[in-house]
Amino acid sequence: MKKIFAVMKKVFFGTYFRGFVSSYLAAVIVGASLLKLPVSVQKGVSLSWVDALFVSASGLSTTGLTPIVVKDTFTVFGQTVLAFILQFGGIGLIMMVALFWLVVRKKIGFRERNMMMTDQNQPTRQGIVRFIRNVLIVIFTVEAIAFVIMSSYLYLAGYFPFGEALFHSFFTTISLFTNAGFDIAPSADSFAMFSNDYFMQTLAMALMFMGAVGFWPLAELKEYIFSKFRRESFQFSFFVKLLVVLHLVVWVVSALVLFTVERGAFLENRGLVESVYYSLFMSLTTRNAGFSTMNVEEFSASTHVLFIFLMFLGSSPNSAGGGIRTTTLFVVLLAMRAFAFDRNQVVTRERSVKQETVQKSFIALFVAGGLIVFNLFLLTLLEPALPPMMLAFEVVSAFGTTGLSLGATTQISWGAKLILVLTMFVGRVGVIALVLMFRPSRKTKGYVQYPETDIIVG
After folding, report:
1. First-residue to last-residue Cα distance in the chain
2. Whole-number Å distance between alpha carbons of 7 and 13
3. How many CB atoms lie within 10 A of CB 339?
4. Distance (Å, rounded) from C-alpha 245 to C-alpha 434?
5. Nearest-10 crossing angle of helices 128-156, 76-91
6. 433 pairs with which residues across the strands?
7. What b/e string do you get for 406-439 counting C-beta neighbours within 10 Å, with b at 16 or more?
8. Taking a C-beta distance cutoff of 8 angstroms, is the pair 136, 91 a contact?
9. How does pLDDT run along the chain (458 residues), one tens digit per residue?
């Protein structure tokens, strides 16, 4: 028995990358078990284990895809459990555990710092505890302020009674900031009830942007604000500036493309302000949030292709979002430019990018693309009656942890649901962490260098 336990421990926790992935897998199972409790499900409603597992994986990966209607299936207790799953998933399971360690003043060792570094996609463990402390302060401050503003507005504007306004704001604030996409709207129509409410849309976009721009900008924002109180100078880092600029550029450009493509279609008979808000909201939410102010099926096929690209691209690294990340595509494009111009280094703004980072970017792009193609192939075998475009939209939405859907999730079989669960899980832990799971726990001493050979490519 001890030998079996030792083997299991080595397989699942032999390295901190395996421990990281195994921790998320365990959290998905625990979440599904909590959602399956009788107190979590409304009377007269049945919830299968597959659907509970699906919702748990979707919540922990902050995807938002769901085969059931949250408000009609779960009780207030079940919805509260789901809200905490979203919070854990969006901020990071290991970061939330680190919060507990900080509260009880537990000494955080080398292995724990490694898992925190992996969870937050950090290049080094140096200063990781201070980083997490700063991020948590900003996140809970932003969510608290947004909760107060939203609950007050929903009550005063007459959307809900006071009690319902409080709970709706509690759930929606978390879901927006973590870019989860789950909603408890009365008609289960996501954000469509606020399609003409530009205050709510603006508040929602602010939360989605802050949750997806990356935790590094949030940490440095806290340092910047505190430096003003101390009357000290503060300079934002190059990495933070890069994250914010990339996030803004992709948002604005994709909004302009959407506006141009749909001007003669969905937006044809709509005013300028309404069209601009539709374009801004939908081009931002496709980058991982999954909320929508209208039925996504009403857009043209060209816009659906644009959404697939945006969902695949995702948000910034080290954020509540998913996808391959904006910096991954940025580094790949820089490497292509360097190759085309016969340059030895991949350079941006008079700084060279590490060769290991370039390799990781291409690996992330290749593995993500391969995973999506393979899973789409499986889905077309399991669901031949559904259009391939609908299935492609669904599988990319699952990988990008976005949650937008063309309606396939509620129609597919349990086998197809398990494929999407796997896709969401990989989208949350990240393809790099998944690949590094196979790295041996110990480095081999010495290595053999083989003679080079050439292979014709391209």
Report:
1. 53
2. 10
3. 10
4. 28
5. 140
6. none
7. bebbeebeeebbbbbbbbbbbbbbbbbbbebbee
8. yes
9. 666 666 565 655 566 667 767 778 888 999 999 999 999 999 989 999 999 999 999 998 888 888 899 999 999 999 999 999 999 888 876 666 666 666 666 666 656 666 566 555 555 555 667 777 888 888 899 999 999 999 999 999 999 999 999 999 999 999 999 988 899 988 778 898 998 999 999 999 999 999 989 888 888 888 888 888 888 888 888 888 999 999 999 999 999 999 999 998 999 989 999 999 999 999 999 988 889 988 899 999 999 999 999 999 998 887 877 889 999 999 999 999 999 999 989 988 888 988 988 998 999 999 999 999 999 999 999 999 999 999 999 999 999 988 888 888 888 999 999 999 999 988 887 787 777 777 766 665 556 788 888 787 77
Q: Which residue has the tokens 């075998």?
A: 381
Q: What angle do CA 290, 137, 312 make, to 5 degrees?
A: 25
Sequence ranges of the domains in the chain: 7-436
Residue with tokens 């050439």: 454
